[in-house]
Amino acid sequence: MSTQEQIQENVDVSELLNGNSEIVLYNDDVNTFDHVIDTLIRVCDHTSEQAEQCAVLVHYTGKCTVKTGEFKKLKSQCLQLLDAGLSAEII
């Protein structure tokens, strides 16, 4: 199954209709804080402070919502996070 199909499967129809989708970033033991922060700044247009706060939350809680909006707008951003080696999904 492709990454794109996995993202599509995780989206509920009601979320598609009302625009309440979120990109959730998950903790892993592979990526550095700097890589996560730089990727969030580049892909999600976070400020350095936002990206750092998300990285800390992911590290200590296991996950963090990094972007909210319409599924079709979030889809390419989530794919970019995945391509950068991060663990993320749209819910």
Present the secondary structure layout.
Layout: H1 3-9, H2 13-18, E1 21-26, H3 33-44, H4 48-61, E2 63-69, H5 71-83, E3 87-90
Antiparallel strand pairs: 1-2, 1-3
Beta-strand residue percentage = 15-25%
The radius of gyration computed from the alpha-carbon positions, rounded to a whole number of angstroms, is 12 Å
Termini Cα gap: 18 Å
Average pLDDT across residues?
89
Shape type? globular
Number of helices: 5
Question: What is the β-strand count?
Answer: 3
Main sheet characteristics: 3 strands, antiparallel
Spatial order of the strands forming the largest sheet: 2-1-3
Structure classification: alpha+beta
Contiguous runs where pLDDT drops below 50 for at least 5 residues: none
Fraction in helix: 55-70%
User: SSE order, as H and E?
Assistant: HHEHHEHE
What does this structure look like?
With 91 residues, the protein is an alpha+beta fold. It has a domain at 31-88. It contains 5 helices and 3 strands, in the order ααβααβαβ. A 3-stranded antiparallel sheet has the order 2-1-3. The chain is globular and about 30 Å long. It starts with a helix and ends with a strand. The model has no long low-confidence stretch (mean pLDDT 89).
